[in-house]
Amino acid sequence: MANVDVIVVGAGVAGLVTADRVRAAGRSVVVLEARDRVGGRTLTEPVPGVKGLSVDAGAAWVAPDQRLLRAELARFGLETTPQDGPGDALTSLRGKSRRYAATARAFDAVTTADVGQAMMRFAAAADHVDVEAPWRGEHAPRYDAQTFESWIRRVCVTPKGRDYFRLVCGTVLATEPQNVSLLHMLFFARSGGGLLHLLTTGGGAQDARVVGGMQQVAQRLADGLGRWVRLQEPVTTIMHDADGVTVHSESGATTAHHVVVTVPPALATSIEYLPGLPHERTQLVQRMPHGSVVKCHAVYTRPFWHDLALSGEITTDEGPAKVVFDTSPPDSRYGVLTVLVEGDDALRLGAKGPARARTEVLRGLAEHLGPRAMDPQAFVSHDWTAEEWTRGCYGAHLPPGAWTQVGSALRVPVGRIHWAGTETAERWCGYVDGAIASGERVAAEVLTALP
Ligand SMILES: Cc1cc2nc3c(=O)[nH]c(=O)nc-3n(C[C@H](O)[C@H](O)[C@H](O)COP(=O)(O)OP(=O)(O)OC[C@H]3O[C@@H](n4cnc5c(N)ncnc54)[C@H](O)[C@@H]3O)c2cc1C
Questions:
Q1: Does ligand 1 lie within 6 Å of residue 442's CB atom?
Q2: Chain-wide mean pLDDT for the chain?
Q3: Ligand 1, closest atom to CA 295?
Q4: Tell me, what's the pLDDT at 86?
């Protein structure tokens, strides 16, 4: 006799949406979460010593066309604040710095032409990728036989153009382009509405932030589920057969008709499955490493960069502070700069520890914004590669060969074990919206399968 209809492993957004939809359909569900909190890769933390200020150490931004996330925000009465503010952004490639307004060009004429032609070729190639099944299609084997770095070298004709696309890879996947299959990069961009859309603030993926923080989405979902969300229950073993599943966690065994695993792919391998999973499935998750990010926040008494008519947005190829956004609260009672340290920079900085990270990041800010940047009221950093239950972010990426060889196993249930999580999404893969989509998809899947 099963304890519940469905067990969900992981109380990130995907797991909580799954449980929410299963419960709404009148079925019983329990969520087992390893951490002592819900939200997974969404985490809103108070800044020590700064009264009333919280920052998003994990996901922060919402796009206008992230329909599912927008619907959850509306359901819980959560508001957003636009990312774009007054002032010019800064870009710096190979030591040449430019300031630009949203309407003007970020690069010199030659680089602009190079980036433009490469963007057009990238978009044309992405049009051939089937987001529902990237392993299919006439061009898939060719795209999957090369890295994004080899594409950059072949297609970009200027050194600055090449550096720009390397920066782009860090920005969206938090890894270096030699680690990523071209097919994966094309899929990822198409899944989120195109590469330019992923890189854009107003109207794009960084259009707005959630007032009060993104983690509230998970917290509100968990509030609705009440005692059916069990924290500090890392799942160690899943036993499954034709009659049901038995899931072993900290407090013992729970039985159900079906189990939904929503943990990031790299962590799905650390759960023991009895009997073992098909070879294709195991191979796939072993070939889905995560990127690396240290997300930092420098808090100032006020957004002093406004005095220089700067927006606080900085993109540079000189690390580690390569991508910077102004995330000050809407009333500007503090000035907050979010610094995304990505890929190799994150691995290097993470190894040096928080004190060194602080110095290096602040020095990078000071180069663009002047000495005032060296003296924040507070500085916090979050190294996601060191998180036991995430092990890197923003999400997983696939190296050459993986999509076409074993990618078709991504969403296929193994008996009574079902798979969700943002990495399984067709639209907005890697984003919160994709996590919601995956939860809705898998909830429908188990509801159909339940007796
Ligand atoms: C720094 C950062 C910035 C980001 N920025 C954005 C952004 O601006 N916009 C955006 O849309 N997305 C962003 N993302 C990505 C977004 O956070 C993720 O896509 C999304 O939160 C993934 O949700 P999920 O439920 O699929 O996975 P997760 O949030 O990873 O949830 C999985 C859950 O499983 C739990 N777990 C793991 N192993 C076990 C186990 N053995 N037993 C039980 N539980 C387990 C984990 O603790 C976790 O709670 C960002 C991510 C990071 C880290």
A1: no
A2: 95
A3: 1
A4: 87
